[in-house]
Specification:
The protein is an all-alpha fold and about 325 residues long. The protein is built from 15 helices and no strands. It is globular, with a radius of gyration of 19 Å.
Length: about 325
């Protein structure tokens, strides 16, 4: 059976870099949280199941997390995941992930269970509703369920484990949600072409220039100008959320340098990815992402200078300005 660390690295090298910088017990708690959410993602996103079965399994997953349901039957069902994706890989090893949850301290386990259950319920609700986003508020509601709640989960763990944050909890909860929306908006932009292929286009109808146009029509060559305007609105939206993410970063005391790094790395990666995607028509046809060399360079510089709020602001500005 794969260890939790092996599952973490095999399912996301980028997040593994940040998580492995964390001090104990946060490292173990956030590893388990990440893997639990990958199982939820599998149940929502996979191409093997029908919508009704997805919803039923998400509900059973919620019951199992809360100590009820038929844990062994669900584990057997997840073991049948056949897709060659990171989410399916973690789903096939749900026994190890749930065992890791069982070993956590009660206070941390309660935080994880509560937020993963809520996120899974939100995923089930949107699975039933389908990919219909009339307004930006609709899109934010969806992104809150899959990413904003992660910001809440992490904030509660930070308040539990780190000194000096108790009085900042409410503001950090609000900014943590924005942090999650920032990362998810960047994911929406870089995944536009892939999501289109599976029938989900995360573009609000209110962003479209014509009320009669469907979001899927943005990918037609005749609608290139409209698509670029929509891309511009998504990029501006990401910029707004990223500003809040930087404010969240500044609220973590510098003495908690490794926790700051854990938050800082995905922030910097998002800023850079957004710079590559900005006004770039290639996002409509293929994934736009950083080079391996850029990831290494950003990580190295953040580890040395990430204690400085002034440097973070300067470096974000520099990454955002660099030509794609």
């Amino acid at each position: 059976m794969a260890t939790l660390r092996e599952l973490l690295v095999r399912s996301s090298r980028t997040f593994a870099v940040g998580i492995e910088l964390l001090p104990d017990p946060l490292r173990g708690e956030i590893t388990v949280a990440y893997l639990l959410l990958r199982v939820s993602d599998y149940l929502e996103d996979n191409q093997e199941l029908g919508e009704d079965e997805k919803v039923a399994l998400l509900e059973e997953w919620r019951r199992v997390l809360d100590g009820g349901g038929d844990r062994e039957a669900l584990i057997r069902r997840l073991g049948e995941a056949g897709e060659d994706t990171p989410d399916a890989l973690v789903a096939r090893h749900a026994t190890a992930v749930l065992d890791g949850l069982d070993r956590l301290a009660p206070a941390a386990r309660e935080i994880l269970v509560r937020h993963v259950r809520r996120s899974s319920a939100g995923m089930a609700r949107w699975t039933l509703r389908g990919s219909v986003f009339h307004t930006e508020t609709d899109l934010d509601d969806y992104m809150h369920e899959v990413a904003g709640r992660v910001g809440h989960l992490l904030t509660e763990l930070f308040v539990l484990r780190l000194s000096g944050l108790g009085n900042e909890r409410e503001r950090m909860m609000a900014l943590g949600r924005e942090f999650g929306l920032a990362l998810q908006t960047v994911n929406v932009i870089r995944g536009l072409h892939e999501d289109r292929d599976r029938g989900w286009v995360y573009v609000p109808a209110s962003f479209l220039p014509d009320a009669d146009m469907g979001a899927g029509e943005l990918f037609e060559p005749a609608n290139h100008d409209a698509a670029m305007k929509v891309l511009g609105r998504l990029v501006s939206k990401a910029d707004r959320h990223l500003a809040a993410a930087r404010a969240y970063m500044r609220m973590i005391p510098r003495r908690h340098h490794r926790v700051r790094l854990f938050c800082l790395l995905p922030l910097l990666f998002a800023v850079r990815t957004l710079a590559i995607s900005r006004a770039n028509p290639e996002v409509l046809d293929r994934e736009t992402k950083m080079t391996r060399r850029e990831v290494v360079t950003i990580t190295r510089r953040a580890r040395v200078l990430g204690f400085s709020n002034r440097w973070i602001d300067w470096y974000c500005h520099r990454l955002a300005e660099r030509a794609a």
